[in-house]
# Entry
Amino acid sequence: MVTAIPFVILFVYLAFSYRMFTFWALFIINYFVMFLQKEGKMPLPASLPNELLEIVLIAIAVIDLRENNFKYLGNLMLIGVGGWCAFCVLEVLNDTCGLGINVGAWFTGIRLMAFQLLYAVLVFSLYINTPERIYKLLLLWAFCALFAVFWCWKQQYIGWTDAERHWLFVQDHARQHIVNGITRYFSTFTDAANFGIHMAATSVAFYIIAITNNIKKHKFFFGGIGLLCTWAMFSSGTRTAMFCLIAGFMVFLVLSKSFKIIVPVSFVFGLFVGMLIFTNIGNGNNQIRRMRSAFNKNDASANVRDINKAAISKYMKDAPWGIGIGIFEKDIPAWNKFKKVSQIPPDSEYVFIWVRTGIIGVSWFLICNIIMLSGACITVFSRIKNRSLMGIGAAWCAAFAALHLGGYANQVLMQFPNIVIFYGGLTTVYLYPQIEKQFEEYEEKELAKGAEKKRIKLEKKLAKRV
# Structure
């Protein structure tokens, strides 16, 4: 502890002096923390670096008031997350299993189920509040996603690392990732389902930004990243990701308010989905063939989740408040009837929340998230006039909806790196009306720079001809 004091002092100084560097460090660490842990290069618990950096950033904002950004906190995002956190705090009194109140288990569970949402909302409200930071956030997300796509390609064509091979074959994750001879790639993520759904939500967001942005270089850049993320989505073999992609585009079409966008996007996407449902095009590719099975109602693998839900529902009738936050199989003795519930794989984030907080908790969680998403959608639909800014807001709304649909079918909603990116990103939508004028000025400058570069390039070309 004594030898660590100089490093702590240096860290505090750098954090205060370069607060945005601390924020970008949080974003990058959040994106790759599970990758580093899987590779054995993160000896700390996965959530600890995130929490420490988030608390430091909040503390800096409280202590150093040079940027008075607390005015951005008053929105439906904070109300929704605050409502969910309040319910989870009350869950400390839950003793459905009759084992007494386990404060330690509850505190561990609430950090992951509630507090990480609150931290993300607070940090993004306090720090992402200018046009430059909005674009830097999107660019950093794009480069992180690009590395994840590259690592997926590397797994396919170069091979696994020793740590990945150990995780697959020694820790017995190969059963979920090599199915009927088809390998489901997981890249830098916790598993293939998390990777596929994240890539689906990411590609939707970047497609929308490419469609709506007024700056040509952003159109090409984000459109290209979107295509690469779609390829990675297929490589994950996660069938739910297809429905996430569809849901995200449906949200965008509603928010676009433009037939010029609705008609061509609907046509192209309809052809794509129709190709998967009604044809055998691409069946030579294992991942496309697996994705196509998502539309097969008789697929045995796809129906396992329904069987598990039916088994859980019989026990949950006697647990309207759930078995308790942070309660797992090891905490429940063999004679307790809720032991069986803790042993059945939840498969879905919503089922996981249902088991821990009951029908009351999962209903309240859904209501809180509907409040957050609806408020953001209304903001985009009725309060933002600038086309590019509307597109960025619609991208966050569509990605958030896509993620939640994925969370209904897979246990990915609370996994890294999703909370910080999607809850934090949706938070920024609420401040867009307040900075729209700044955004237009920023966009005009960028367009002027582009026009100037084009003029200089043309002059050089003409000069060569002479």
